[in-house]
Amino acid sequence: MHCGRHMSLSDRPLSSSGLKRFRTKLGRNLRPFLVTLGWGTSFAAATLWAIFQGLLLPKSTILPPSIWQTEPFLLALYYAMIFGISFLSGLCIGDLDKTILGFLASYLIGATVIYEVLSFPGLNTLDIGFRETLAKFSVDWTFNALFPFPLFIGLFGGIVGAAMQESVLG
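Now predict its structure.
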């Protein structure tokens, strides 16, 4: 007996093993992307914390990037946070190639978020000179805050986490 109704793929229930395979495959493919998003936002949050604590304020925008070294303990805490975030992210991703790509993408996400937060007050004003000056300083401050130490510490932490996942926890 045919009721005139055609079955579609969505009408067919998935077996429990088929559903399990689908969820495993989706989790494997989606994990690096989601970890990279979390890595970038955590990286930005830690860096903004350090900026707003006054740890990563630039000395000058003319000279090469450098920061005031006033609070060495808090600065060490910031670098430890960057290493820890990167280590855990590398551990979650587990593949060295995907970890390096994930770090580069998260670094870009973090830099974008930091720039947007620093330049946000200029969006509320009609003074074009203030807005452009703040945007220029935001680029300088973002570069000074993220280069060179956080770049290398984050990359090193991610590589160590991925290597530990591949070799020890494998």
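The mean pLDDT is 85.
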